[in-house]
Amino acid sequence: VRYSTGSILVLPYPNASFDAVLVECVLSTTDRAGALAEIHRVLKPGGVVLVSDMTARTATEWPEPLASVLCLTGVWRAGELAATLAGAGFGVERQWDETTAVSALVERVETRYRLLRSMAGDGALGAHVVRLAAQLAVSPSALADAAPDAFQSARDAIRAGGVGYVAAIARRRDPDTEAGSPAPHSSG
């Protein structure tokens, strides 16, 4: 196994390199069309992408860093994922709800937050928390003040059905061999 890093908007791989790509909680945080064009480019014809991401019924303001951690900054609306995949040259083969996984994620993030907060007095860890807050453009005290309400708001929204998690499997369509298939977006 080899690991490499790069932007999803400019993947460091040649055309048609992969049979499958996994995209988990990423498209809600970036330029969707650009990312899907790159995924389409690096997939072999007929290759498969599995996408999972957050959904919401309505636009909701979430405090940072919870919005970023839970992929809620550019959350998908109902039906939007399938339509966007189709517009990017993919045929959706299956889509399903994974909202129960979000509840578990909120609990894990809150547990980690509480652990970090309880250890923030430790010099090294405290400095790490301060650096993280600075990277997120949030003051450590604002983070501490907002977090408990934000976690409760997330749990309430999930229980009420306002926030969810969707997964989809889509196959790369090749417009040269499939009549009527939309052309993939250009990655520029």
Describe this structure in words.
By secondary structure, the chain is of the alpha+beta class. A four-stranded mixed sheet has the order 1-2-4-3. Helix 4 runs antiparallel to helix 6. The longest helix is centred in the middle third of the chain and has 21 residues. It is globular. 25% of the residues are buried.
Annotation keywords:
about 190 residues; alpha+beta; 4-stranded mixed sheet; 6 helices; about 40% helix
Structural class of the secondary elements?
alpha+beta
> Could you give the count of β-strands?
4
Helix content: 40-55%
Largest sheet: 4 strands, mixed
Q: Which radius of gyration do the C-alpha atoms yield?
A: 19 Å
Question: What is the end-to-end distance?
Answer: 30 Å
Strand content: 15-25%
Mean pLDDT: 79
DSSP helix count?
6
Question: Unreliable runs, pLDDT <50, ≥5 residues?
Answer: 179-188
Report the principal-axis shape.
globular
Strand order of the largest sheet: 1-2-4-3
H/E order of the elements? Answer: EHEHHEHHHE
